[in-house]
Structures are given as structure tokens and as C-alpha cells.
Amino acid sequence: MSSLYIKEATGVDELTTAGSQDHPFKTPAYALFASQQKSDATEPKLFVFKTEDNEYQEISASALKKARKGCDGLKKKAVKQKEQELKKQQKEAENAAKQLSALNITIKEDESLPAAIKTRIYDSYSKVGQRVKVSGWIHRLRSNKKVIFVVLRDGSGFIQCVLSGDLALAQQTLDLTLESTVTLYGTIVKLPEGKTAPGGVELNVDYYEVVGLAPGGEDSFTNKIAEGSDPSLLLDQR
User: In what residue span(s) does the OB domain sit (predicted)?
Assistant: First the structure.
């Protein structure tokens, strides 16, 4: 049976700690945990440094029981951390694959579709079933798996826009930011019963162009101005 030493004042709770008198652990729980991580079949004897006696003494039965409980907690924590790290690696791999796929998508207008009618947002509410072209600023931006929802704003009003398929997956779309200036092409459709949006309609986008991309990250508009602020404040920031 091996022996491990614990000294709270100078010990170090690391898996690389030797556990000797010269290089002791800080806590009994971690000493047991480190021993088990090294696949030691038998539980080591633990010796705790007693300041009042200035020497190492074998751990008491009650302290050993407490150390075993603490060791179980450390093992559960290690398992959880390993699972989280695995999930993180899987997420990073998925994101890398998604980005690679997004880079291969090119956004092109389908020339077989009817010519889009250029219109203001407010006027588009009455053009249900027609293909229109509206320009404005991205007021809200939300991703829902393979669908992107955009609330577009111009001087006349707001309209909810839906990007799906390759439009939602393209790198150009993933790079969109709030207050970016865009021109959207698509068909005006009436909202399903029970759904609400400005004008009672939404724009099913089939193509779009980026006129000007607003800054993202620390320089983004949302870091300077609260969402829902008066559009004139946003105008001052452009």
C-alpha cells in the first residue's frame, strides 16, 4: 500500500503532484482522486501534516470518510468536464463544416422569376402575391436553425422577411449584422391565422443584395444603442 502526504499550507492539488513529504497534496480528497486517476488498485494511506505537532500523522477515520466523499465529487466533476469538452469539440467540428459548406453557396437571382416591383415597405403591404424589391436597414435579425428572420426598416415602416434554403445557409447571410443596408427581393404573403407582424404580411425572400454591411462585434450598433431605440439615434450612428 502506497502512502500520500497532505499539507494544506504548501501542498498542490494537481495530478502531477508526487504526494511525497517534499511535494505533498493540498487536500486529502484530491490525493485520493489523483491516486484513482493513476489506476492504483488499493487505496493509499494518507498522512496529514499537523502544524501543532510539526509532523505528518495518519488521517483520522472521520477525515478519511470526508475525503472519500470529496473524491467522489471530484470524479463526477471530471466526468462532467470531459463530457463538456467533447461537446465543445463536436460543436467546433460542426461549425467548421457549416462554415465550409456556407463558403460554397453563391447567392444568385433566379432570372425565371417575374421582375420585382420596386416599392416602399408600407406600400408593399397591399401587394400580396406579388414579387417586390424593398430596400432598408436590418432592424432585427434572428436565426432559427435553417431559417433566418429579418425585420427590415425604411422611412415608411417595418416588414418581417424570411430567408430559407441556401439563402439562410450562405456565408454572406451568416455575416449579416444589425443596421446593415440591404435590398431584398421576394413575394409578399399574408400571415397565417394567429400570427402577427407589421402590415399583416411577410416577405418570402428569394434573393437579396448587401448595399452596406454595418460593423459587428465590439463596434456593433447594439453595443452603442439599446435595441428598440428611436431610428433617428441609429441614423446618427451610421
Answer: 132-211
